[in-house]
Each structure stands twice: as C-alpha cells, then as structure tokens.
From TrEMBL:
This is Fe-S oxidoreductase. Pfam families: CxxCxxCC (PF03692). It comes from the Bacteria.
Amino acid sequence: MRSPIAIVDVDRLDTWTRYRAGLCDTCAANCCTMPLEVQLSDLVRLGLVDAFEAEHEEPRHIAKRLQKARLIDHFNHKNVVFTMARRASGDCNFLDPKTRLCTVYDKRPETCRLHPQKKSPKPGFCAYGRRAA
C-alpha cells in the first residue's frame, strides 16, 4: 500500500503544504535538502567558527577558510551570509542519512529554527512529504 504522504517538488512552491503542529513528526526532512543560508552567529553555535575568530577576523577570511574545508559552498559578502555545503545527495551535512534526523538539533542554525513558520521560501508552508525521485 502506498504512503498517504504526497511527493512534493521543493522547487514548486504550489506543491507545498500549509504548516501545522505535528507536521514534522512524519516528514522525510525535505527542508534539509534545500540550500541552507546561515549567519556568522550560527557558525559559532555549530562550533565551526570560534567566538574569538568571529569577533576579530574579517568574514571573507572566515569564508575562505570554510570553503577550503568544504564546509560552505558560497559567501555573500554584501549580506554576510554563508551557504552551507551539502552532500552529493543534496542533503544537509548535519542530516543523519539513516534516521533523517538532525544531528545538531540543539545547535541548529536560526534558519532551521524558524522554518517554516517565518523563514522559508513560502512562510507558513513546508515542502512536506517524500522527496521527489
């Protein structure tokens, strides 16, 4: 028997589901397959940058180090936003591939904390369901 969860195309916002309490309980972590933009404070909380470095080093130098270590893919110097690197599968590096749970949940970035209610391509909606094949 097929699962009642619909296949969602994360690139098509019209396929997204309105967020409701408990929605994440049965999700396949679709939000963890989208590009993750983080602030310097998130990188400190994750332990990828120490507080001293964040306070005394230019963000572009930090970005260069993180890119070389393959921890980020991109740095937007104008907004000081870092785009986290992902696995070849498209999954977030912090997503456990077997359980589909976040391995850094208590330290997760602000973007993840506010998703999908406030921080989402379509606030109040989620790319809920199984990933499209």
